[in-house]
Design goal:
RNA-binding, five-stranded mixed beta sheet, 2 domains, elongated
Amino acid sequence: MKYSQLFGKTSKTVASDADSINAKLLTQAAFIQKQISGVYNYLPLGLRVLTKIQNIIREEMNKIDGQEILMPAMTQEESWITTGRNTMEVLFHLKGQGDTNLVLNPTHEEVVTPLVQKYVFSYRDLPLAVYQIQTKFRNEARAKSGLLRGREFNMKDLYSFHIDETDLNRYYEIVKQAYFKIYERIGIGQETVLTFASGGNFSQFSHEFQTLNEGGEDTIYLCPICRVAVNKEIIDTQKTCPECGSDKLEAVKATEVGNIFKLRTKFSEAFKFYYSDSQGQKKIVEMGCYGMGPSRVMGTVVELRHDDVGIIWPKNIAPYQIHLIGLDGLGEDLYQELLSKNVDVIFDDREISAGAKFADADLIGIPIRLVISQRSQEKGGIEFKLRSEKESEIIEAKDLVSKIIKFYN
RNA sequence: CGGGGAUUGGCGCAAUUGGCUAGCGUGCAUGGUUUGGGACCAUGAGGUUGCAGGUUCGAAUCCUGUAUCCCCGACCA
């Protein structure tokens, strides 16, 4: 991609209503653009990041036998009356044709349970896990913090169905491990901790995945020994680490980037979802649900990975692999060569000053910046600089692609 | 949802006892000079001051209503 052709330009000033680091930097660098409070447009750079996050999640969900589906954003209100959740304050209500009452789904238990019920009748059909990556709508009392709390946001939701609690527990642990793998690949594994939360009526705990960061909305209580935490609900009832029993929990700020939950039979009972076991006996289906918001993860990454001049994207979710800056009219040949080697490159071909190009590269935050200029050629090649480092080095042209490949593998 | 603040070219801002043709920066266009950390000069385009109504000789400025945004709080599978 040539930067001169890219839809969406950086700005020296930032919209005065940007209320958080992620909103400021993502808006200023033209990754997102706010439509209304808590609702954002994704521009090409932003969509690339979001898609990369989604694809990492998708790969890990597929590895644990999740089958991807796509459910609708709107549903008849009746399903929500069935479960008693039609009074949730975050529900958006709308009218269909005639007197049809519809809701915009804030989550999909009310959709997925009747859907799976149409195809699953026997223990032979279980276990089963389906997921989607889709838009959720929640009419939050107060949207805020850029991508961290929106009224419309992107979410991956996985639902699992089991013959009994034992099998639910087995799969729940598998999902837990898959989540850590995802955060690791996205580049926030170091800061993301398992957090014990209330389990509702049917299980002792649910689990949140909380990413430690100063700007976080949540306060959690971290065990320095086990590096697990408990949330406020739990600390109010037990003051110790659930793993080691330590009472030296530290209050820290964090952002919730995932939540997994044993639903048990709450929804299968509401929809009368039974299966026949090997004896032909009618049994209730056990369920789990597992949420993760790619858009919120994207915002959280920016909160965590930036400096005072811009974003510093982790390598697996950067919008491009290479930010190539051409000076002195150079760069086109190198750009074409990188493209031919399948390197994902954005080429700043604009006829503006070097300083402006450097400033934009810092703001956009692609992990590797290359500069090709008369100066770099006099020094024997191409300047190679990591966004996360201060110093640059000169690389000979023949070594460039292998160095790039090495960095990304 | 309760309390507070704000709304002026694309973006960031200025303009009050109500007073001249609503300014500045940035961005944009054209020409020229520059050319490794957001260059400089010149010229130009771009605003019925969120919307609706009212007071007045005269409203960005005062009044009423309304919409939106932000902050604090409550809320938050």
